[in-house]
Structure formats: C-alpha cells, structure tokens
Amino acid sequence: MNRLRLLILPLIVLSASATYGASAQDRDTEQVDPDLEVWLRQHLRKLHGWGITQLLRTEQKVDDEQKRRANVSTNPRELAILANDEDSGVRFFVASNHHTPLGTKLFLASDSDPTVRSGIALTLAHDERASETIREVTEALALKLAADSNVLVRLSLLENRRLPESIYDFLAVDGDLQVRRKVASSLHAPQSALIKLASDSISVAMIALQHRNLPPQVMQDIVFGTTSLPGLTAGEQILIRRAISSNPNASSSVLDTLARHVDSEVRRLAAVHPNTPLATLEHLARDLDLTVVLGVAQHPRADRALLMRLAYDDRDPQIRLVAQDRLEPLLREEIRDDMLERWDPGNRMTTR
C-alpha cells in the first residue's frame, strides 16, 4: 500500500494517456512501462473498497508526493502537468523550481494565488548569455511581477539576485515604502535606482545614502549644498549627514566637511571612517566630545606624532590607553632600529 501512496503521482504523470484510454502507439511514445500500467490499474480498482480514513490518509500521501516531485523534478513535462495541480502548494513548488521551463513560469505568473506568483519572483533568472528573445521575455515577465498588485510578490522579486537593472529602477518608485526600502538595501541595486532613492523619504534615503553603489557625487552635492533635500526637519538633515558619514565611498573632502558638523555623532563617524585623511584626524583630536577623540586614537591613519599627543591626553584614561597600546610596537621598532644604527661592524657600541 505504501508503494501505491508514494508512486501514484509519478505513475499518473507517466501513464496519464494510458490510464484514460490512449492508444498503444501513444503509450509507446510516452515510454510507459506496460507492467507498471497493469499494476496501477489493479490498485486503482481497489479505491472502490477503501473507507474514508484510508482515502484521506492516501490523499495526504499523494499531496506530499506531488509537492516533493514539484520541488525536485527536472522533467519539463512533469512540471508542466504539476503546474495545473489544484493544490497551490504544489504549484508554488513548481514555480520556485529552478528547472521549471520559462513557458511554464509564464503560465504560473498569472496564477490567482499570490504565493505561487511569488515563487516565480524568487527564482526568475535573467541570463546575459541567453538569446535576445529569451532575455526580452524574461525581462517582460519580471516587469509584470514588479507591477503585481500583491506586495508579497514584489518583495519576493527583490530577494532574487538575478534581475535586470530595469526592475530595480521600476521598483525604486514603488508606492509601498517597504519595497523602496528593500531596493535601497539590495546589494545589487544599480546607481540609477539609488540616485532616485537618495531623495526619497528619510527612512529610505538613509539606507540609499549608505549604499556602496551610490555615486560619490550624490554625497558631495548634498554635503556641499549643491543639492537640497526640501521638506526635511533639522533633525532629519542630521540623519542624512550621519548616513553619508557611514558610506564606505565617502570622499576625503566630504569627510573633512562632516568633521566640522555640529552633530557629535556625525563627527564621530567621520573620525572612524577609513577614508578620513590625517589632517582631518588631527583636527578631530581636539574635539570636545571624547567619543570623537577615541575614534581618532583607534584610526589606522593616526601617525606617531598624533598618537604621542593622545598618549598624554589628560581628559580621558581610555584615550590614553588606546594611544599607548598603538604606540608600543611603533616605539619598540623605532628603538630597535636606532640601536642597530649605532652598532658598528666590530660589535662595539659607538657613542653619538
């Protein structure tokens, strides 16, 4: 009986025409095993004698097997058949199966269940090596999903890492805030989408302004006042500067300007940014906020002279300790080199 429960779906798939009276020639074409067909017919006749408990249990087994097949099958014909299954769970597994042909995905993209459509969105693959026709069809399908009325489908699309850039640009102006935030945080978001999002609402703009793909010119225009962000409060303007201070591609000139900002957190972020030049660090070392100065003491560009100054800073013991710890290997190497310079070839110490 277990054999019937576990094999009924693949047998129905392989023997569908035979079971419903297809010709012998059709069965040969479909490569249906005659012995398997006879076995299936015998067990199907037993269905008339089964009670409700056995029928329900078998139905659950068949459903589970259908979902498993939909999830793992690489057979295009089988996947096409399963795409018509009445169970939306089965159709979802077909939709999210990487082996499902593009034609079947096009069919499922119009499914009434948004969960099924989200399965397409999760796995749709845009391949630059594919033919122009395939690329165009794939992009058209992606745009259809990007315009889906259900936000779950659009968010699922952004979980996909193989999308054409046009999809990010399309979703960058989506009416749903969470979708735009998802675009702004996507590692694959192109510059064109991020430029739009940098002037979005504060919660979206802050994410976009920290993105590694954001053009540095956008940050410069904001910091130097070339581009204004109207409608923002003073507090929101500060949040914008904090976001820029955290961007890995912030330029040294931008960081130098931010190092003089009224907000101490903006200055602290500038103090720990790897692109901050030494001259700016020297300015920040005199900051009244000790968290800013501590950031300077920890910065890899802080040189010996700056660390020596901070090693004797009487404002905070932690700043002194950090500076002294970083100075220790520098001074040890310096003294070692000095001693070697004073040692003559005859192994006698010379005096200066």
Quick summary:
With 352 residues, the protein is mainly alpha-helical. Helices cover 64% and strands 0% of the residues.
Structure description:
Helices cover 64% and strands 0% of the residues. It has 352 residues and is mainly α. Helix 1 packs across helix 3 (34-45) and helix 18 (264-272) runs parallel beside helix 20 (290-298). It starts with a helix and ends in an 11-residue tail after the last helix.
Present the secondary structure layout.
Elements: H1 2-19, H2 24-29, H3 34-45, H4 52-72, H5 76-82, H6 88-95, H7 102-108, H8 114-123, H9 132-146, H10 151-157, H11 165-171, H12 177-185, H13 191-197, H14 202-208, H15 216-223, H16 234-245, H17 252-258, H18 264-272, H19 278-284, H20 290-298, H21 304-311, H22 317-341
Shape: elongated
**Helix content, binned percent:** 55-70%
Largest sheet: none
Number of E-type strands: 0
Query: Gyration radius, to the nearest Å?
Result: 33 Å
Query: Which percent band covers the strand fraction?
Result: under 5%
Structural class: mainly alpha
Q: Which segments are poorly predicted (pLDDT under 50) over 5 or more consecutive residues? A: 1-32
Order of helices and strands: HHHHHHHHHHHHHHHHHHHHHH
Task: Please report the number of helical segments.
Answer: 22
Output mean pLDDT: 85
Could you tell me how far the N terminus lies from the C terminus, measured between alpha carbons in angstroms? 99 Å
